[in-house]
Design a protein that fits this description.
By secondary structure, this protein is an all-alpha fold. Helices cover 70% and strands 0% of the residues.
Length: 272
């Protein structure tokens, strides 16, 4: 090889000032000429070179945004909030697929047994479980990232709760459409679902993200078993009186949740 890149061109190349077509020639030549690469290294600013490598490493290490995360950012959601939402375990395809399968199976049983009781009993538990799995160091693999994020603990909880409820209640709503013969009775799961979720959240700062929803879910199952033995009609939670009680419990739980909102930051720090 008899031709080498001119030293002045190499200096311009190092500063990022070399223009085409000399830039193209220098790029091609440097790939096959060790001598010119050594010369380029000697005329390059080591500080600028290190800075460039650090910038490149940071760019390569940044995870690519998924479709859902990119959509949230485009809608105006802050980057760190969008990342926390898309990292929520129960918003992943595996959990959503499991919920869809469970709901389809339950709807099939309802059509076979000609009674919506099983679906009405199960539907309120799914949002409760989804919110429980989205919060707490024992269940959330991104908990440490959530703790150090610039978001108030209660606000983070509400952000994830709204996202999980939107997904869970949406899937429950679609399953309800498969039960048109039961009319409004097929929607009587909604108020109990809100009551269970709000109660579980309100008890979380005192009992923890595992015990609180577990006790609430157990109480719901115990209530259904107790009222199932009381007669042959619809279970008490799905009657007009039961719906009124569920609405009242939901309202009281939301009020209690608002009162204990500051305790979620204390719970965050003590759980780490």
């Amino acid at each position: 090889m008899t031709w080498h890149v001119d030293a002045e061109d190499l200096r311009a190349y190092a500063r990022g000032e070399l223009t085409a077509p000399r830039l193209w020639s220098a790029d091609t030549h440097l790939m096959s000429c060790a001598q010119c690469r050594e010369t380029l290294a000697s005329v390059s600013d080591p500080v600028a070179l290190d800075t460039g490598w650090e910038r490149l490493d940071a760019e390569l290490d940044v995870p690519r945004r998924g479709l859902f995360e990119a959509l949230l950012v485009r809608l105006g959601v802050a980057d760190h909030v969008a990342r926390l939402l898309t990292a929520t375990p129960v918003l992943r395809r595996s959990w959503l697929a499991a919920v869809v399968f469970l709901l389809l199976t339950t709807v099939g049983v309802v059509h076979t047994a000609d009674s919506p009781t099983l679906f009405l009993a199960l539907a309120p538990l799914l949002p409760l479980a989804g919110v429980a799995l989205s919060y707490g160091p024992a269940l959330d693999p991104t908990y440490e990232m959530a703790v150090v994020s610039p978001v108030h603990g209660f606000r983070l909880l509400m952000i994830r709760t709204v996202a999980v409820l939107a997904a869970g209640l949406g899937l429950n709503g679609l399953a309800t459409l498969a039960l048109p013969s039961y009319g409004l009775r097929a929607l009587t799961w909604l108020l109990p679902a809100l009551a269970l979720t709000a109660t579980g959240l309100a008890l979380t700062p005192r009992l923890g993200p595992v015990l609180a929803p577990s006790l609430v879910g157990g109480a719901w199952i115990a209530l259904l078993v107790a009222t199932d033995r009381a007669g042959d009609g619809p279970l008490v939670p799905f009657t007009a009186a039961g719906q009124g009680v569920a609405a009242a419990v939901a309202a009281l739980a939301v009020g209690l949740l608002f009162l204990v909102r500051d305790r979620f930051d204390v719970f965050h720090r003590s759980a780490v």
